[in-house]
Amino acid sequence: MQQLALSFEPGLAQRFRDLRECFASCVYSRGLGRVAAAVDEKPSNLSAMLSGDRNLDTGVVERYMAHFDDTTPALFMAARWLQCADQRQKQALAELPGLVDRLNRLMAEAGRA
Q1: Are residues 34 and 75 in the same domain?
Q2: Residue 76 contacts by C-beta under 8 Å, 6 or more apart in sequence?
Q3: Kind and range of the H or E run holding 15
Q4: Are residues 75 and 98 in the same domain?
Q5: Which tens digits make up the pLDDT trace of 34-83?
């Protein structure tokens, strides 16, 4: 039996609202036309899928990952759905000091106004 070990890119699940937004980021960073050709879709169809006007076919995402060797969409889904409650709590606690510092700076700026 082999154990699966996943390492998540920090903040990947927080950076994007959903899989569609994550995939759109991947596509537009490589070029819509180039990706459309690689996944055998018309650029207008792919654009409609990314905008939410059409259903985003999982086969398109899979062909993208295979062609460009970019597993970001799968890692996003894993980071979003496979972390245990303890991991989410640790991540939230790790982000608190930075948020407190930012809040203190904003309050100081607001007090000067």
Answers
A1: yes
A2: 12, 13, 16, 19, 22
A3: helix 12-15
A4: no
A5: 999 999 999 999 999 999 999 999 999 999 999 999 999 999 998 888 87
